[in-house]
Write a structure and sequence with these properties.
Strands 1, 2, 3, 4, 5, 6, 7, 10, 11, 13 and 16 form an eleven-stranded mixed beta sheet that branches. The protein has a five-stranded mixed beta sheet with strand order 8-18-17-14-15, with no helix packed on it. Strands 9-12 form a two-stranded antiparallel ribbon. By secondary structure, it is of the alpha+beta class. The mean pLDDT is 96. 18% of the residues lie in helices and 33% in strands. The protein has helices at 25-28, 36-41, 43-54, 87-93, 165-170, 176-180, 227-237; strands spanning 2-8, 11-18, 21-24, 62-63, 79-83, 102-106, 111-112, 118-120, 127-128, 131-137, 153-160, 163-164, 186-194, 205-210, 213-219, 245-247, 269-274, 278-286. It is globular and about 55 Å long.
Length: 287
Amino acid sequence: MRLATIQTWAGPRAAVQVGEGFVDVHAVDAQFPPTVRQLLEGGPALLAAAAEAARRPGVFTYSGKDVKFLAAVHDPRKIVCVGLNYKDHAAESGSPIPKDPVLFSKYATALVGHGENIVLPAVSQEVDYEAELVIVIGKKGRNVPAAAAMEYVAGYACGHDVSARDWQLKKDGKQWMAGKTFDTFAPVGPVLVTADEAPDPHKLRIQLRLNGQTMQDSTTSQLIFSVGQVVAYLSIIVTLEPGDLIFTGTPPGVGMARKPPVYLKGGDVCEVEIEGLGVLRNPVVQG
């Protein structure tokens, strides 16, 4: 099942992908809540019913070519990110393999959807790209055992952890949160692919293209901490809730590690592609 949040005349709506189109299931039947997060809160039975409703004969379908996407989950309660979580990226950064997940947060104002602009802040001259697999949490959990952690995953999406390196690494004390959560710095989408359609998230090719040129090309087999390990670890710290988004880290090829460095500029186009999850495309504009 593939879910998206689309902009309609009535506001953001959860939509089920049917073929190349998208069906607003709340418009089909008001028993279904209007947001993806609320659908996830309803559990597997509600999701299955929504998928069935979307395939009823004669329902209105938004064209995939014309639809305006918002972030796959546009109103998460939490956005948590893991840094230095690919062996090959840690190597290019000259960093040791971390013993525990390196964590930071983004805020909901950073979220944008497929096709929306990444806006470069005027106060940063070193904005970098980072392709990432995003975990979407499906049910509430605290102190989740590692053996059961995958049961808490609703699905996955393409994510882009846009990073202002001068703010992240050159401010006093290093300011990871500040450098990572400028507005528009968290594109997610275009869709949420449910876990049953991505049974092994550790065997997915992950790429980022900048203006058509491949800059990152790796596989999630390089993850240091697996999806289950990340979910279990985070649940020790916070209560995980349906719709929470977890960025899982980026592979090598980031701009700051290149010689000379490559940073984003107005007019660029970024594409994150993850095997089986689709392509997340965002233009870059100067703020």
